[in-house]
Design brief:
Length: about 190
Amino acid sequence: MRTILILALATGLAACEQPAPDMPPDVVAAEATEPTAAPGPSAGIDGWEIDMTAYERNGQALTNFVVKEADGTDITPESLRNRWTILGVWPADAPPPEEANFLAALSSAADQDPDLDLLVIHAAQASHPWPVAVDDGIAIAALALPASPAYLLVGPDLTIEGYRGALSATPDDGIKSVIKGVAEIRKQIAAPQ
């Protein structure tokens, strides 16, 4: 029975490749030599995914939340307004070990850019060499990120402009592609449409 089913499928596929019987030969030849369309533009920009297939909230306003800095200061999305911010999110109290080196490098790179901040939200207070805010689980859940750890690039108007998963998944150039992508996204946002 399986052999008959495979034969029927193969015959059907072969028939699909045959020209329609009433098609003139010159149309059949033109279709055969017609170039196929090139794939559409990529939804990614150096180190970031920018469309909704990667993260359904790309292009939308950052969801409302309240998290606390080590000194007890509340941070809300409004605290991030008028700045570009990379918002790191993971539900554990520390990133996976392989992630920590990349995150330290990202923090250093963000410190070099006067228009870029880094804030990492996680579930428990811990000492890290990058800015940290603690969440009781509500903010992390509200962001509904498809992976952990994950990072959002938030624009000055609080729109989520990019998403990416773990920094440790970055190619061999470390976080250079992530920073280069931030610059490219900022350039595209600033350019008149």
